[in-house]
Amino acid sequence: MIYGNNKVERLSPQEMRDIMLANAKVLMSDRFRTTAPEVTGQKKKVISTLQK
Fold first, then answer.
1. pLDDT in tens for each of the 52 residues of the chain?
2. SS3 for the chain, per residue?
3. Which residues make Cβ contacts (< 8 Å) with residue 29, sequence separation at least 6?
């Protein structure tokens, strides 16, 4: 928060942990789940265009 003389109020370590934990829970939720091989660590399936 910025006040009249431009001083910034800092978060306490506990407040910062709470915010980081809330963010992590959201990012790990099903809403952001992906099956992209780049993200999951799996190898990409190579589809050959030369298959007959």
1. 555 566 778 899 999 999 999 999 988 888 877 777 776 667 766 666 665 5
2. CECCCCCECCCCHHHHHHHHHHHHHHHCCHHHCCCCHHHHCCCCCCCCCCCC
3. none
pTM: 0.46
**Contact at 8 Å (CB) between 26 and 32?**
yes
Q: At 4, which amino acid appears?
A: G
Q: At a CB cut-off of 8 Å and minimum separation 6, what does 37 contact?
A: 43, 44, 45
